[in-house]
Backbone:
DNA sequence: TCTTGACTTAGAGTAATCTCTAACAAATAT
DNA sequence: ATATTTGTTAGAGATTACTCTAAGTCAAGA
C-alpha cells in the first residue's frame, strides 16, 4: 500500500507537521518522493514510524532514535549493536511498568481517601478511618 | 520529621533548582519557611511532592497539577471534583499500561528479529523465518 | 575569625518537541 | 475553468520543564 503524509498522519494520530519535522530531523531517510515532490509512504515506512513512536514513547529522545536509524543504514555489522539497544529498551519498559504500578497505588489510595472524604463531607479522615491511615503509611512509606 | 530542600531533593531524586521552580510555579503553597528564610519540609510536604511526581509522571502538566492544589485550598466543597480528577487519572494510567504493553510487544518482536539476524549474520529474515513474518503481521497489524 | 556549604532571590538561558505561517505547486472535485 | 484540498519549503514562534548564574545571607566547624 501507498500512503500520503496526510493518510499516515491520520493513521498514527500525528500531524503532518510532526511527520515533516521527523523527516527534517533525519528520522525518515527511507521515505521516497513521488514525481510532484510529495512524500510516498509504504507499509514498511509506517512500521518504521510505529517503532519511532514506540522508542519515543518509552523515553528515547529523537536524537538517539536517529542514531539507531544510522546503525540500520550501516548494514549487517551493526546487527549486534541494534539487538543490544532493543534489549536495553526492554529493561527500560519493565522499569516504567514498575513505576506505573507505584503511581497506580498512590492514585488508588487517593481515590479511597476522597471516596471516604466525600461520604463524610470533610477530609479529616485519618482519625476515623484507621485502614486509610495504614494504607497511607504503606503507599508513601514513612511514619 | 523536618527536611531541608537539599534533603528532600536527595530523597526524591530531584535537584534543589527543580523544587524551587515548583514552588515558584505555585505547586508547593504549604511549604513554610524557617527564621532564616529557608524552606522547611514536613513529611506531608514530601508526600505532596510524591503526588506531584505521580501526576507529572502520568502525563499531567504542571499547570493542571497547580489547578488541583488550588482545589485543595478551596476546602471541602471541592472534594467531589478532586475525587473525579483522580478517577480520570486512574483511567489514564490504565491506558498507559495498555500502550506500554503494546510497545513491549513491538520491542519483543524486534529482539526476536535481531536475535535471528545476528545468528545468521544478515537481516533478510522473513524468507527463512516464517514465524517472525507472522509475528510481524500480528504486532504491526497489516499485510 | 575564617571558610565551607547550604540556603535565598530574580531572572536569563537551554533543550526538546513540536506548531504554525507564508508563499507557492499540484491534484481533485464541481 | 475554477475552487478546494493536499502537498511542498524555509524558517519563525510556542510550550514545557527545567537549569544555571549572580549576588547575596546564614549557620556550623577548624
Residues:
Amino acid at each position: 500500500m501507498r500512503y500520503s503524509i496526510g493518510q499516515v498522519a491520520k493513521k498514527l494520530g500525528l500531524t503532518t507537521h510532526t511527520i515533516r519535522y521527523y523527516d527534517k530531523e533525519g528520522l525518515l531517510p527511507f521515505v521516497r518522493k513521488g514525481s510532484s515532490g510529495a512524500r510516498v509512504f509504504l507499509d514498511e515506512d509506517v512500521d518504521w514510524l510505529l517503532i519511532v513512536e514506540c522508542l519515543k514513547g518509552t523515553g528515547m529522545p529523537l536524537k538517539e532514535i536517529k542514531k539507531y536509524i544510522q546503525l540500520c543504514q550501516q548494514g549487517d555489522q551493526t546487527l549486534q549493536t541494534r539487538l543490544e539497544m532493543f534489549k536495553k529498551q526492554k529493561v527500560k519498559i519493565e522499569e516504567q511498568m514498575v513505576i506505573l504500578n507505584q503511581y497506580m497505588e498512590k492514585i488508588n489510595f487517593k481515590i479511597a481517601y476522597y471516596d471516604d472524604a466525600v461520604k463524610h463531607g470533610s477530609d479529616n479522615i485519618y482519625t476515623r478511618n484507621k485502614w486509610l491511615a495504614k494504607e497511607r503509611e504503606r503507599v508513601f512509606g514513612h511514619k
Summary: The first helix of chain A runs from residue 5 to 12. The CA atoms of residues 131 and 137 of chain A lie 10 Å apart. The first strand of chain A starts at residue 2 and ends at 3.
